[in-house]
Design brief:
The complex is a heterodimer of chains A (about 350) and B (about 200). Chain A has about 350 residues and is an alpha+beta fold. Helices cover about 35% and strands about 25% of the residues of chain A. Classes of the chains: A alpha+beta (about 350), B alpha/beta (about 200).
């Protein structure tokens, strides 16, 4: 059967394989024998795998790596690490150890790799974890990331689809970093916008996660390659619907301008193809649509929790300098899964 | 006509090149863009819709696509964003035809015959002087846009000639066909209702 091949180069989480494509392959793999201690596996499409060791202890496993989306190798290392570590936080876990994953061309300047790994190591240290080793192979293109192991109490796992009707949705980072990084490659993004995007991508979700633990979190995921709407769709788990306040979703200002100028990405369009069928836009302009489909690298946490908790948590996060906003609410299941109102 | 070669370019470069070429036109005219992937085609068309330009695309080979953008007199000035009047001007006014296909057979009676009939109906559509703007597939009709459908080739041809092909997402889900969609894109009931309400002519085979 002839399949359409789609190639459009881009680093960061925009380099993910399309969700549809991946799902098709996973479905065809032979079923494994059931292990009751595997609390979160890949049939849940959650952020990381969770395996129970004892009644109050489970390990969280995740790995993430990708090609560079910024020019500076040290910054790239920081972003790749922050992005990989994020999955532990999205599960409500605590980082313990990390292993480097490296692909590097043999004939390139090895100092570049040194800078990448320095950036990565700093973020692992900031997370409170320990870098414990790694694996590297010669490859034609640079790729870097981490395999991270964390721990979590099995009763306190943040499932991505645990949200409840009436919950509010809180997003802890601004959107638009995909648009800005891509535009920066063609010289169309300003220095200020790029540095704001870099600041956002190198910020660990550790701080937002720590504050969230003071509240009763029902569901949580981190917003990465599938974009805000793609990850929100996974959060609904075919069981819930939601309304997004289109005018309250935080984004880096210049992303809107870039979308209006059609500096639009391939990965954003792939996200639209995959998730667009679940979404209805009401009074939402084109630029906002693009921002909501924009693939994020090291994006923020998207948290579902009760109204009172959501209000207090958002306020507390803002005091700590986290650009958190309440961006929507969960409703019972409706014909249209996600409605975005302008 | 300005020709743009964006083969080998990653997004957003094909879109940027297209935008610059339209600017270069400085008025009404056509821009032809060659790209090597379908996503770039979709992104260029997305811009065209926003700008109020007409756009057609065709697949030349496995990794070659040709997109033609037609810029009208009024919309050429890129500083004046799409204005409502343009849509209402009598020159642009033409019938908006929507074909709604709700089953994988045509008519009632023998099923085998019905399958042959729907296939030849879609083939016949490709031969019409005036093509439908949109073809909607829902309920059993959803099977026609998925892998294994006998009408795929004709539907791809219609799409390359500018027909919008939309399949109901709920229906794909229901029949577990989500991953098999082979032509056009997924839509929802809101958009289907909007297409039907906005049609001047609805054809139900």
């Amino acid at each position: 059967m002839s399949e359409q091949k789609i190639f459009c180069k881009g680093g960061g989480c925009g380099a993910k394989l399309g969700a549809g494509l991946l799902h098709r392959i996973l479905e065809r793999l032979p079923k494994q024998s059931f292990d009751e201690n595997l609390l979160v596996g890949f049939d849940c499409r959650d952020d990381a795998a969770v395996y129970r060791l004892s009644e109050d202890m489970a390990v969280v496993h995740t790995l993430d790596f990708f090609p560079p989306m910024v020019e500076n190798p040290y910054t790239f290392g920081q972003i790749a690490a922050a992005n990989a570590l994020s999955d532990i936080y999205a599960m409500g876990g605590e980082v313990k150890t990390a292993l480097n994953i490296v692909c590097f061309p043999e004939n390139s300047d090895i100092n570049i790799l040194g800078e990448i790994m320095r950036g990565g190591m700093e973020k692992v240290a900031e997370s409170g974890g320990t870098l414990a080793g790694g694996h590297s192979i010669a490859d034609s293109e640079i790729k870097y990331g981490l395999s991270v192991t964390g721990i979590v109490n099995p009763k306190k796992i943040y499932k991505n689809n645990g949200g409840r009707k009436g919950d509010l949705l809180v997003l802890t980072k601004k959107l638009g970093v995909g648009l800005i990084c891509m535009a920066s490659r063609v010289g169309e993004a300003s220095e200020e916008a790029l540095s704001e995007a870099v600041r956002s991508m190198t910020t660990l979700n550790k701080y937002a996660a720590r504050i969230s633990k003071e509240y009763e979190v029902h569901g949580c995921t981190d917003v990465t390659g599938f974009g805000f709407l793609g990850h929100l769709h996974e959060m609904m788990g075919g069981r819930l619907s939601c309304m997004v306040y289109g005018d309250r979703v935080p984004y880096i200002e210049e992303a809107r301008h870039l979308a209006e100028e059609f500096l639009i990405t391939a990965a954003g369009q792939k996200n639209r193809n995959h998730t667009g069928g679940f979404v209805r836009f009401e009074n939402v302009d084109f630029a906002t649509e693009e921002i909501l489909f924009d693939p994020q690298t090291s994006g923020g946490l998207l948290i579902a929790l009760g109204e009172r908790d959501a209000l207090k948590m958002t306020e507390e996060m803002k005091k700590e300098g986290i650009p958190a906003e309440i961006v929507g609410e969960i409703t019972e299941r409706q014909d249209i899964e996600i409605t975005v109102k302008g | 006509m300005i020709k743009v070669n964006a083969v080998g370019d990653a997004c957003p470069i094909p879109v940027v090149k297209t935008k610059n070429a339209v600017k270069e036109l400085g008025g009404a005219g056509e821009v032809e863009i060659l790209v090597d992937n379908e996503i770039a085609v979709q992104n260029i068309k997305k811009m065209a819709v926003q700008k109020g330009w007409e756009a057609f695309s065709e697949r030349l080979s496995a990794d070659r696509f040709r997109v033609v953008i037609k810029v009208g007199e009024t919309s050429a000035d890129s500083t004046s964003e799409k204005e409502e009047e343009i849509v209402c001007s009598p020159i642009k006014k033409r019938e908006n035809k929507v074909v709604a296909i709700s089953s994988d057979v045509m008519g009632e009676g023998n099923r085998e015959l019905g399958e042959v009939l729907i296939k030849s109906f879609i083939f016949a559509l490709t031969k019409q002087d005036s093509l439908p703007d949109t073809i909607l597939f829902y309920n059993g009709g959803a099977r026609l846009t998925c892998e294994g459908s006998p009408a795929l080739e004709d539907l791809r041809l219609l799409e390359s000639m500018g027909c919008e092909i939309l399949t109901c997402g709920t229906c794909l889900d229901f029949y577990s066909l989500k991953e098999s969609l082979a032509v056009g894109s997924v839509t929802n009931m809101y958009a289907i209702a909007e297409k039907l309400m906005g049609a001047d002519l609805i054809i139900k085979p």
